[in-house]
Amino acid sequence: MDPFSDILTLVSARSYATAGLAASNHWCQQFVGFDGLKFIFIQSGHFWFRFDDEQHWLSLSTGEGVIITRHRPFVMATDKTLKVRLADKAPKAVRDPQASDTEPNLLLAGKMELDATGADLLLSILPGLLPFDSRAEPSHKISWLMQQLYNEKRQLSAGYTLACDHLMHLAIIEVFRDWLQRQTSASGIAAALIDPRILSVLHHLHQQPAKAWQLHELAAIASLSRAAFAKHFHEVMGTTPIRYLTAWRMRLASKALRFSGEAIKTLAFELGYKNESTFSVVFKRYYGHSPSQHRRLGPGVTLSGASKDKL
């Protein structure tokens, strides 16, 4: 897989299409935050959006939308002069798109769930709010995907639920792609994903994490001299290739320990360590506790105590 797909797989990214919301021209409601990414697309009409703790409103017209990447309550309205109806007091306003013909404003929503223990790897490159416009190039794919999702919701053909979820996953990835291509001052993973030379190197590191990579091999992949490659990699990633590889190995180890019963010794060999002892020393340096302790903590363990060299 490519490096960005590797990251989405590592964080167990899974998307769902939720119901549509049809609203009149006189509507204003608060929504609770979501653990994961919240996707909102304006299928027709016009909505206003703002975070609950902010006063600035964002105008969203047909074809526009946002992805909320942090757990924050937010407000949506078709009339921002109205008093906000609190989430715990508001009647359920979510409806299937089939009911939208009676209201002038319709949005489609979805979500992407992430493994909380690895979510920081993806969220570190994303802003808190990611606006997008499917009417502009190269975002037209998003518009097509959302039209297909809308059609699936209305027709209710066999397998439509799964089809909608897959379409939502593709739409969110397209928003990510569009956002990455528009970055001019990105750093770290975000910068690497739009740098052909570094991206090629990450692809090889991810494909063969157990290999004892040498600097000259990676420099050759990037078509640079050793010195130029080492300098460029550090400027883009903020770390060295070897430290990046170690951090990636530790991410893979964390997921394997939490979600599989694979023996620690076997895992150590698979990640390129000659013995369990060496692997355990590196793992403890990175996470602050041993692999066996990490496994006992289970899927809910956080990575806040990880090394400063984390991705």
CATH topology of the largest domain: Jelly Rolls
Q: Write out the CATH superfamily name of the largest domain.
A: Regulatory protein AraC
Radius of gyration from CA coordinates:
22 Å
* CATH architectural group of the largest domain: Sandwich
Indicate the mean pLDDT: 87
Query: How would you spell out the order of helices and strands?
Result: HEEEEEEEEEEHEHHHHHHHHHH
Q: What is the total tally of β strands?
A: 11
Structural class, please? alpha+beta
Indicate the low-confidence ranges by residue numbers: 91-96, 301-311
The proportion of strand residues reads 15-25%
In a few lines, what is going on in this structure?
By secondary structure, the chain is α+β, with helices and mostly antiparallel strands.
Characterization of this structure:
The protein is α+β, with helices and mostly antiparallel strands and 311 residues long. It has 2 domains: 13-181, Jelly Rolls (Sandwich), CATH 2.60.120.280; 190-300, Orthogonal Bundle (Arc Repressor Mutant, subunit A), CATH 1.10.10.60. It is 42% helix and 18% strand. It has 12 helices and 11 strands. It has helices spanning 3-10, 119-123, 140-155, 160-181, 188-192, 196-207, 215-221, 226-237, 241-259, 264-270, 276-287, 291-297, and strands spanning 14-17, 20-23, 28-31, 37-44, 46-51, 58-61, 64-68, 74-77, 94-95, 105-113, 129-133. The strands form 2 sheets. Strands 1, 2, 4, 7, 9, 10 and 11 form a 7-stranded antiparallel beta sheet that branches. The model is unreliable at 91-96 and 301-311 (pLDDT under 50).
